[in-house]
Amino acid sequence: MTRSVFRQVDLTRAIRAAKNAGMDVGACEIMPDGRIVIRESTKAPPVDDAFGAWKAKREGRVEGRS
């Protein structure tokens, strides 16, 4: 097994740089060769109708809870 060229400080710096650039960080991947891939957070489009708002709120609940 080969040693990883990844260090936690590298990931911390990459995330900080992405946030400073205005990116909303959603996920990070560390590739086997040490590359760091940062993916932007995806957000659902806003819901305009009352039924859609109710449904989105209801789907966000944990099953078994009210």
Number of helices: 2
Please tell me how large the radius of gyration is.
18 Å
Count the E strands: 2
- Low-pLDDT sequence parts: none
Specify the overall morphology: elongated
Key terms for this structure?
35% helix; 2 helices; two-stranded antiparallel ribbon; 2 strands; 66 residues; alpha+beta
Task: Show the helix and strand layout.
Elements: H1 8-20, E1 25-30, E2 36-40, H2 50-59
Antiparallel strand pairs: 1-2
Explained architecture:
This protein is α+β, with helices and mostly antiparallel strands and 66 residues long. It has one domain (8-59). The chain is 35% helix and 17% strand. The chain has a two-stranded antiparallel sheet with strand order 1-2. A hairpin with a 5-residue loop joins strand 1 (25-30) and strand 2 (36-40).
